[in-house]
Amino acid sequence: MKGLPVVALLAVTLAGGCASGSALMKKSVLLDRGNPKERVLEVMGAPGDRQFRGDVEAWQYCRTDYSGFSADQYVVVWLYQGRVTGVTTYRNTEFGTCSSFFKTVRWEDAPDRTIEIRQR
């Protein structure tokens, strides 16, 4: 019986980790092409990593997901002149904190740019 509280605590911790990883993905679907970076900050919070190249920015976010095995989930929000042009994802299964494994951005992977958005 002494081990039961430890097992219960571990189960709650693992369930919480799973929820946080999937929550990151759920948040990212709330972003639309053309949203200003202020909307990204409102939905996703401050990025864990920012990289720049001219008018293009890549903001990276990560969460550890414990569903079956430890894996880090990453979301990259691409911006051009302060507006969202796309969102991409990737995973990492190496051991450690997810913020230790942000990838160096491959700028050729950036989505097509939105030059102008017109409301109809």
Explain the layout of strands and helices:
Blueprint lengths: L3 H25 L8 H8 L4 E5 L2 E10 L5 E10 L2 E10 L28
Antiparallel strand pairs: 1-2, 2-3, 3-4
What are the defining features of this structure?
globular; 120 residues; 28% helix; alpha+beta; Beta-lactamase Inhibitory Protein, Chain:B, domain 1; 4 strands
Write a structural description.
By secondary structure, this protein is α+β, with helices and mostly antiparallel strands. The chain is 28% helix and 29% strand. The protein has a single domain, classed as Beta-lactamase Inhibitory Protein, Chain:B, domain 1 (2-Layer Sandwich), CATH 3.30.1450. It has helices at 4-28, 37-44, and strands at residues 49-53, 56-65, 71-80, 83-92. The protein has a four-stranded antiparallel beta sheet. Strand 3 and strand 4 (83-92) form a beta hairpin. 21% of the residues are buried.
Q: Compute the number of strand runs.
A: 4
- Total helical elements: 2
CATH topology: Beta-lactamase Inhibitory Protein, Chain:B, domain 1
Low-confidence stretches: 4-20
- Helix-and-strand structural type: alpha+beta
* Side-by-side strand order of the widest sheet: 1-2-3-4
- State the end-to-end distance: 65 Å
Supply the CATH architecture: 2-Layer Sandwich
